[in-house]
## 1
Amino acid sequence: MRTTAHPILQPSDEVAAALAAGAPVVALESTIISHGLPQPRNLEVARELEAVVRDAGAVPATIAVLDGVAKVGLDEVELERIATESGLRKLGQRDLPVAAALKASGATTVSATSFLAARAGIRIFATGGLGGVHRGWTEEQDESADLDTLARTRITIVCAGVKSILDVPSTLQRLETRGVTIAGYQTDTFPGFYLHTSGEPIDWRIEAPEEAAAIMRGQDALGGPETALIVANPVPVAQQLDPELHDRVLGEALAAAEREGVTGQAITPFLLGYLVRGTAGASLEANLAAVRGNVALASRIALAWAQ
Ligand code: PSU
Ligand code: MN
């Protein structure tokens, strides 16, 4: 499906050519760059992640909305805007038509990125950790739109589980209810984002990228609802955040968010930022190790899928 001519959704020339040729393409999100990582490291990371995809033999498509246009594949100047522009919005899927109408610019979350990637004809997407059900859900009903989008979008998302700031068991329950397929990559438990494992068991384990591609072919052969495939890929134990430090600083971060009344879209960036400072940067290194591993695995799945 070519959508090159569509004014709201614009693949770069490189991405459009790769898709037309059936070459492997990996979508990357931009919220992690604009709202998830501190400057100036975020721009280096944005470039590095694209390089990981290229080194693996695939084409990166970082996705963001610039001046109302959903760009699929950013050039160097556009990538810099995402990393440095102040006041850049955080856009979920529901925000996209408004951003288009008002010619706004914003970074896309997992929900908006999955949606746009699928529309552009990209099947594989890598991020750090998904959004999910927040702790205290019984009072706030804060469940990331990521989950709903994945329940109705045919995309394969490689991630290190969901962010450990969330209620992980409840998030897994919601994914089960919504019919989103999950496979652990060389693991029997759901990864814990900064941590190798959340301790929560998952039902399916795969060992190789080819198996992910085979599941995707199975999804298409069966038809039915256009659900996602989550490939849950843990950060290596050697690169995880010290679990004790994680639990202590996360407790502080949650208390600070409560005290300062942080809610809604601001809560995830607030907690991630608190963890970076509270662990003297160790959480950032674990986050980056997770994202790098996910981007590398997503590239291998994209190659297997393109065959
Ligand atoms: N992964 C990371 N860092 C991030 C995110 C993912 O390693 O900052 C972003 C994604 O864009 C995800 C968003 O969709 O956090 C979730 O935000 P919310 O909880 O407000 O839905
Ligand atoms: Mn939310």
## 2
Amino acid sequence: MAKAKKEKLSDKLFYKQKNCWDEINKKAEKEVEEIASSYKKFLDTGKTERECIDVICDLLEKNGFKNIDNISIDQEPVHKILKPGMKVYQNIRCKSVIAAVIGKKPAAEGFNILGAHIDSPRLDLKQKPLYEDSELALFDTHYYGGIKKYQWTTIPLSMHGVFINEAGKKTTVKIGEDPGDPVFTVTDLLPHLAKDQMDKKAAMVVEGEDLDILAGSRPYADKDEKDRVKLYVLDLLNRKYGITEKDFTSAEIEFVPAFKASDVGFDRSLIGAYGQDDRCCAWPAIQALLSLARIDAKNAEVKSIPAKTAVCYLSDKEETGSAGNTGARSLNMQNFLGLLHGGTEADLRLSLSRSSMLSADVNAAFDPTYQGVFDKKNAPYIGRGIVLEKYTGSGGKYGASDANAEYCAKIQAIMNRNKVQWQCGELGRVDKGGGGTIALYAANLGIDVLDCGVPVLSMHSPFEVISKVDLYMTYRGYIAFLKDA
Ligand code: MN
Ligand code: MN
């Protein structure tokens, strides 16, 4: 007969984190695969902020969310029409979205907000990008967000974006994603001739101005013409999209890695893909919102209406500091919540100060190859669940909104009540660098806000890696927050 195991004091007093794979059952494993597979599809169809918004607005419409701009055109103010369980959203310039499920409690009691971003580091075309040199056509770029420039050479790139003509007509471009499409690339020097290059500091190995994209090499047939390779490219673009060189000056054209999201590892426990910062939080955030007040298969009955109004805000421009009229420093979120609230500006401010938010963003997972930059005790680990990050910032917590202890404990309690496995995490060793999120802009409004998301390996690289089980715990954590905060 087995002896009853005596509980050790250390088991009672020490804080230990467990690997989520050891803790989940067969049913949960199935759910892990389900969210992973919908997420990979999202990554492949949403490679830019505009494409993400297209996918998400489509999804919101299919799930019964109404565009608030269409409602407000009708006579009555929006807040008078809203009832618990109703679902509304706003598409902000095709690059950001805010969606809400109206709760049972009045807006005056505050909102529960999930805020993630859907822009990712990439190469943007300059305004006069196309040139010819040595019978090669090349695009001049200005990189967007924090990248290690050398990582963006010698990989297949795809072209995404919009041209807008003077009449306002929008032409959408996506080349390099469909089977059989051509792709593009930034060339790099062969090792044989790279003696001087290899002696340079990594930041200078490939310089920003040299991230030029190879776009063609075939001359236009008419030999009386100049720059015939450039001309051939423009002729093709003109035939297909009706554009001329001038149209690049107003366009937004982004180049991103052309490869698709894949499972990584023999055990398929990981996902490798471009743009996971921050789509690995944006996707579970929007899915968490959709899980509330979901319309069932019979297209009937609205279920699980949240107590407080649940909001999901997906912002643009986080990777360049959240400026701009689609970024989180704009008044977009306040404007939207003001419509739901319907009171005076002072009323809205009071309601914001009673609101809770998770700044849904990624953290750097501990990487055994680069142990030196992490504090092993305080780094988040792949496979240990959603990361609760009390503060971000750098060197002396500079720029961190630093969530207060009361709020951290409240969120931990929500996770524990709902059996969501979580870990705490800090971005790297003290004074090794740092970074920020949109949390501080919410904190400025008096909102209680905590950074909370998925740990990532190779963050900001063309091929970032996350764990499926962390994605799953994050999804469940976001649902728990919206229902319970
Ligand atoms: Mn991020
Ligand atoms: Mn980032």
## 3
Amino acid sequence: MEKWPLGIFTSVGAGLGAGIGAVKELGVPTVQLHAPPRDMATPEKAAEFKKQFDDAGIKVTVVFSGFEGESYADIPTVKKTVGLVPAETRATRLEIAKRNSDFARGLGCDALGMHVGFIPEGKSDPERAGVIEVACELCDHCAQNGQHLHLETGQETAEGLLEFIADVGKDNLAVNFDPANMILYGSGEPIEALRKVGKHVRSVHCKDAAGSDKPGETWGEEKPLGQGEVGMENFLSVLKEIGYDGALTIEREISGPEQKKDIADAIKLLTDLRAKILG
Ligand code: MG
């Protein structure tokens, strides 16, 4: 496959994302996929979806695990509800994530992605030890499936992320770099962060955003690609600099006709920038 194949973050079945029909229409060769609900995350369904994607010539680069009960309503709610951080759901969610890793293997996909949640930063925080423990267990499970585990950026600063990766200490723990999330959460300047975590980056979201006037307290605002503060040309230049050669996966977290239009515009923008930067 060519370097930096374009992709879309999508889903199978109803709900989030652009949908496989739209992916075919837009003509991109890769997707990242939201893991489907439990009744669809079976080996039989995985085989069925794999055939659909294979027939369409589309490669699934990452399967993203999400969990029932997560809410991105505002930043405090994210802290309380997202990922493997909330203690009361940690064990259950670990099992779901393992199942999604198995589902991804069924699709022939070598990466499981997720928001781990707001990782407690204090080294002595007992909750931090618990999150590290399940991250280790999930990495081991992914390794058995020939996969990396990709941490979605956003909640942590680059330094916080590097520290967590070092503490987990597993070779197959990697980063899905989302520059817009750094802006949305107010967790640092994305380009500088990309340079810092660069060697761990195995997938990216091409997404844009404008910052909040109260960074870290309230959300910034997601924007169509190229209309926010990321600076897409600079972003791609630094991806080249760090030696990244994976997919450029467009993520546009709205729905309806505007999502489709923005994704089509993003494909055009990335196609032009890729030609300019890779030559
Ligand atoms: Mg993202």
